[in-house]
Write a structure and sequence with these properties.
The complex is a heterodimer of chains A (625) and B (515). In chain A, 70% of the residues lie in helices and 0% in strands. With 625 residues, chain A is an all-alpha fold. Chain A has three domains: 314 residues, no CATH class; 164 residues, Serine Threonine Protein Phosphatase 5, Tetratricopeptide repeat; 117 residues, no CATH class. The longest helix of chain B is centred in the first third of the chain and has 25 residues. The chains are: A mainly alpha (625), B mainly beta (515).
Chain lengths: 625, 515
């Protein structure tokens, strides 16, 4: 009875620790990592699969080994749409691997190594703290481990039965998971050696790691031998192309953890070394207060959490999170949140671009601090052409009404990121703006088969049905009114040329105007700025935005500028005049020492255009381009 | 009776009863005695009304776009058992076996489709009977095409597929995930047979190459080729070398445009494994493109435009929107390997349009081609239409006798192929939307008259409503491609290739490189 109680109490200790660990694991992923950011992808995650509620979509997965688990993973991963559900899924997956390691070390009679069961969940924490997505490949591993558990649980004494079981499971498993089958064969082989010392069986199992993938993958599925052995494992070429992050090391770790552990056990046993806890741990456990169960529980648990916390601290990528958050909020047009999230990664060009957009939509574009966006190329993101840039640029272009520019970006992004619902949504909108209702219908039709997007798609499909020209959709009508209609190639010579073209089409395009004027002041092209000052009248500004006022003051202060400004009826606020005077007074105090002036300029003048104009070099937007 | 036997009997009885119930319910005849006759045709999608269909085509499943709670469809012809379908959904799936039986009994007859829709108030409405004609001539059973997203500069997933037109089976011929997302395009077959194939490929990892299949023999030439055309003898391939960059428009609805900045036509001799250029087809100031052979192999038809620019580095080049291609041919004697003089068939100055993609019908009577406002990529020109030229009458009158095909729409019609019996044309059309090409089939009678085209049927009649791939370069073949995907891909991945002596670039070769 005593022994039973002891076991019970030990089990309780362990179970309560694990329970607490996984509760915190879940809460961390849900509330802190915010898994739905990974679903959205931030233009960083290239391979987040799309799932269609469609028989033909399912059929595609039947044509290759691993397709079924990929299909299942694709479906499950859609629930990353909700942070709480995504966190729950990952927690369950980590728990399954944890539980497997726990029972495996017990079965191979190495209970001293039970503490290692927390290693895979910690790897999961690291992977998601880095905002990476390897769900499909970790899922194939999870299924392979479940099959090993099944094999062990069958526990047939007769060798022939064990062989039959193994080959049946092997055939099914390879079709289910592809290359991750090799882990199954290796572990089953090593398990036979460790627990039964069956060299022959073990050898057959180990050899089947070569035979089954070749037989099924190469001869039946007709795949190349490299693909047959690697498909859906972290070394599969598709994942190598899609997921170029350092997180992949931890996926390798997850795959290799158990085979290496088991191999080490075999070597230790072969060498006749007894498996003891490290000496210092044994000594620690002999200290009197360590004999107190509660204290020991607290210390053990604390140590575990310390390790997990350290792993999280070192791996958590706050800048990446900020980038993901900014993109998510910008996509959902949650502008105040964009500004808040941007503070953790303020210098990233994509963040700056999103901040510019947010400021424009909040009516603060010409008023707010200049320090974040002193590079004209971040206004329209016309830099090097790469997919991530297309992802962000398309929304800026769409807001501006530069619809073909947006279409090009989305078309490129679709090839790079796959048929992601966010991109399909943009394509549907673009085609509705262009009046290509037949094409829009196809994108909407595809979206209507995607979880969580069907409502939006069906709403538009019905709208198109009742109003094919979408004459009552104000947003579509507005964007149509901005579209360029003059023959022109997409590759404009300069950023300014795009914005001017948009203003030529519709002089009331406020975003194009504010971006153009900002471009001029950033590049210190104040002559062009002055030439466009009359356009202020086209917009109902209660007062001229601060930065533009400051530029006007600078122009007016020079003799040539005065000429340019002649006849322009502009009211400059007293506040701006006062700031300008303070700035001039400050400068005159440091007449000869510009560097000292730069260091000592008061904070309230630091975000002025006067400061930028005086202390920053010239930037040529075309060079930036 | 022992207990076990009693249970066994009960189980058998239950199974039998269930079987009988299912059998009866499945074969229950539908009788609609009272119905309202509607004075209109039913709205159905795809539009399978008033067309001519091949007797070996897969069932034309369709969607009834009429509101109702039940749908009854009766498909019948002069002979054979009518097909009756009662459905609670508007998606009508026709049983394959009955369909083929009905079609095989009624070559040359009308095929009638009666559609009844049960309204909410339980009354049935019968629409006017839809009829299609079953042709006497079959269509080649397999259609090979490329599927790709309507992409711009970047591409990822694409592939060549073959569709068995007699059913709904589509199998990949070569998907680009077999060679790390390279590009596969411009596949051609010799005499509608899958025995000889050429496929142009592009790949960063395995270099660009031309894959040549001759029965079981597969090899590649590591050079970047464009369009290819097999000589009917199968002994040589006409091929183009192009430099066609993508140009994007800021204002046009179809923003993509392609300009062939420089191009020429060469010949690959299968037996001697060498590439030759012919001075007439590689002139410095001309753009030769789209070669295609007459079925007797005596003429090579091609498109040709004057190069309006001297600077081949600027994209797009100046005056590119004035570049218009004309139709020409050149005679060839394969036995003597001798070329004749170039003859003009139809000049752009006569039509005001640019001619592309010529194809000669296997009986040698018709030449079909596309025309658009300028340049060489009709697929990106909404104004592109298909035309048919009567070669016999043109020969007789010494004047081009041609006309616009009846099957054109307001959107783009472009890539097309003939069936081996010259009675069917399969072509790409964007008639339903301006972005995604879908593949259509049309019947051509012996007088060159074309009948209403219909989209290649799919098992799910709503399939095309949400499918994000575009279908291009359809090619009809009589048998399926037999080599497996992996076998083809292995050759692409392999380092081994047929060495070709001459340096081939996008530019027209200099004089010393010519024959």
């Amino acid at each position: 009875m005593d022994i039973f109680k002891k076991i019970q109490s030990k089990e309780f200790e362990s179970a309560s620790r694990s329970f607490l660990f996984f509760i915190l694991f879940y809460l961390y992923l849900w509330l802190f990592v915010d898994i739905h950011l990974i679903y959205h992808g931030g233009g960083e995650i290239r391979y987040f699969p799309v799932f269609y509620k469609d028989w033909f979509f399912f059929k595609e997965f039947l044509s290759y080994p691993g397709g079924l688990v990929e299909y299942l993973s694709t479906f499950i991963s859609q629930f990353f749409y909700f942070s709480w559900a995504g966190a729950l899924i990952i927690t369950l997956q980590a728990w399954v691997i944890y539980a497997f390691v726990n029972s495996f070390v017990k079965i191979v009679n190495a209970p001293q190594l039970r503490w290692l069961r927390f290693v895979p969940p910690i790897f999961f924490l690291i992977l998601y703290s880095k905002y990476t997505f390897y769900f499909i490949t970790t899922m194939t591993l999870t299924v392979a481990l479940c099959f090993i558990w099944l094999y062990i649980k069958f526990n047939f004494r007769k060798e022939s039965l064990r062989l039959i079981t193994f080959f049946i499971l092997s055939t099914v498993l390879y079709a289910l998971v592809g290359g991750a089958y090799i882990i199954f064969a290796l572990l089953c082989g090593m398990y036979e050696l460790l627990s039964r010392r069956q060299w022959q069986t073990s050898l057959i199992f180990l050899l089947s790691a070569l035979i089954i993938p070749y037989f099924e993958g190469v001869l039946i599925y007709r795949f190349s031998s490299v693909d047959a052995f690697t498909i859906l494992t972290p070394i599969f070429w598709k994942f190598q192309i899609y997921n170029k992050t350092d997180g992949v090391l931890f996926v390798y770790g997850l795959y290799l953890f158990l085979p290496l552990l088991t191999f080490a056990l075999i070597i230790w046993r072969m060498l006749g070394v007894r498996l003891n806890l490290p000496k210092f741990i044994s000594k620690v456990s002999e200290i009197s207060f360590m004999k107190n169960k509660k204290i020991r529980w607290i210390i053990d648990t604390g140590f575990l959490f310390l390790v997990a916390a350290a792993a999280v601290c070192f791996s958590f990528d706050s800048k990446r999170k900020a980038l993901f958050s900014v993109d998510y909020y910008a996509f959902n047009r949650m502008w105040p949140q964009v500004l808040e999230a941007a503070t953790d990664n303020p210098n990233h060009p994509l963040v700056i671009a999103a901040v510019n957009r947010a400021l424009y939509h909040l009516g603060q574009f010409g008023n707010t601090s200049f320090t974040l966006r002193h590079n004209p190329s971040t206004l329209l993101l016309v830099g090097e052409h790469h997919a991530q840039l297309y992802w962000y640029q398309s929304d800026i272009f769409l807001d501006l009404g530069y619809v073909n520019g947006a279409e090009h970006d989305v078309a490129e992004a679709l090839e790079y990121y796959g048929e992601r619902p966010q991109l399909l949504q943009r394509m549907a909108i673009i085609n509705m703006i262009k009046g290509n209702i037949g094409t829009a219908r196809i994108y909407l039709g595809a979206l209507s088969k995607i979880l969580f997007y069907s409502g939006w798609a069906n709403m538009y499909l019905n709208r198109i049905e009742s109003d094919p020209t979408l004459s009552e959709d104000r947003q579509i009508q507005y964007l149509r009114s901005l579209m360029i209609d003059r023959e022109h190639l997409l590759e404009y010579p300069t950023i300014n040329a795009i914005l001017l073209e948009l203003l030529n089409k519709n002089r009331y395009n406020r975003m194009a105007f504010e971006y153009l004027m900002t471009c001029y002041i950033v590049t210190k092209d104040l002559d062009s700025f002055a030439k466009n000052i009359d356009r202020f009248k086209d917009f109902q500004y209660p007062s001229i935005p601060r930065l533009f006022e400051e530029a006007i003051l600078i122009i007016s202060s020079s003799p040539s500028g005065k000429n340019l400004m002649q006849g322009k009826e502009l009211v400059i606020s007293g506040k701006s005049l006062q700031r300008y005077n303070s700035f001039l007074n400050f400068l005159s105090a440091f007449k000869k020492d510009k560097n000292k002036a730069l260091r000592e300029i008061p904070d309230d003048l630091r975000d002025s255009y006067f400061f930028y104009y005086t202390f920053f070099g010239n930037i040529n937007p075309d060079k930036e381009k | 009776m022992r207990k076990q036997y009693r249970y066994f009997l009960i189980v058998v009885l239950v199974i039998l009863i269930a079987g009988v119930v299912i059998f009866i319910s499945k074969n229950r005849g539908v009788s609609i005695d009272r119905y309202n006759s509607m004075n209109q045709f039913p709205k159905i999608r795809p539009d399978y009304c008033g067309t001519v269909i091949p007797p070996n085509i897969a069932p034309l499943n369709f969607l009834i776009k009429e509101k109702g709670i039940r749908y009854y469809v009766n498909i019948h012809s002069k002979q054979g058992t009518p097909i009756e379908i009662l459905s609670r959904t508007p998606k009508i799936s026709i049983p394959e076996a009955s369909w083929h039986e009905l079609l095989s009994l009624n070559h040359g007859q009308e095929l009638y489709v009666d559609i009844f829709v049960e309204a909410e108030n339980k009354s049935w409405n019968k629409f006017q009977t839809v009829s299609n004609k079953i042709a006497n001539e079959e269509i080649d059973a397999f259609l090979v095409y490329r599927k790709i997203h309507p992409s711009h500069n970047t591409w990822s997933f694409m592939g060549l597929y073959q569709r068995d037109l007699q059913n709904f089976k589509e199998t990949p011929v070569l998907k680009n995930d077999r060679y790390q997302y390279g590009c596969a395009h411009c596949h051609t077959f010799c005499n509608n047979s899958s025995d000889k194939i050429s496929i142009s490929t592009r790949s960063r990892d395995y270099k660009s190459s031309l894959l040549i299949v001759e029965g079981d023999k597969i090899y590649k030439i590591v050079k970047k080729f464009g369009f290819t055309a097999w000589h009917p003898s199968g002994r040589l391939l006409a091929l183009t070398i192009n430099y066609p960059p993508l140009v994007l428009h800021a204002n046009r609805n179809e923003m993509r445009d392609i300009v062939d900045i420089d191009s020429w036509i060469g010949l690959y001799y299968i037996d001697s494994e060498e590439i030759k250029t012919i001075p007439q087809l590689s002139r410095k100031d001309w753009l030769e493109n789209y070669p295609t052979w007459s079925p007797d192999g005596r003429y090579l038809y091609f498109c040709n435009a004057k190069m309006l620019w001297t600077d081949t580095k600027t994209v797009p080049p100046e005056h590119y929107q004035e570049s218009k291609y004309s139709l020409y041919r050149i005679s060839y004697d394969i036995e003597k390997d001798k070329w004749g003089e170039i003859e003009a068939i139809l000049l752009s100055k006569e039509t005001g349009l640019s001619m592309n993609q010529p194809r000669v019908s296997p009986d040698g009577r018709w030449l079909t081609f596309s025309m658009c406002d300028y340049s060489c990529w009709p697929s990106y020109h909404p104004d592109s239409d298909l035309y048919i030229l009567d070669l016999k009458k043109t020969e007789e009158t010494r004047k081009p006798v041609y006309r616009k095909m009846e099957i054109n729409s307001d959107e783009c019609e472009s890539w097309h192929t003939w069936s081996s019996n010259s009675r069917w044309i399969v072509f790409s059309s964007k008639k339903e939307n301006p972005l995604f090409n879908r593949t259509y089939i049309t019947y051509v009678d012996e007088n060159g008259k074309l009948y209403k085209a219909f989209v290649v049927p799919h098992e799910d009649p709503t399939f095309y409503d949400s499918y994000l791939m575009t279908y291009t370069i359809p090619e009809l073949v009589t048998e399926p491609v037999k080599n497996t995907e992996e076998k083809l891909a292995r050759v692409i991945r392999d380092v081994e290739n047929v060495p070709v002596d001459m340096a081939i670039t996008g530019a027209t070769p200099k004089k010393e490189n010519r024959e």
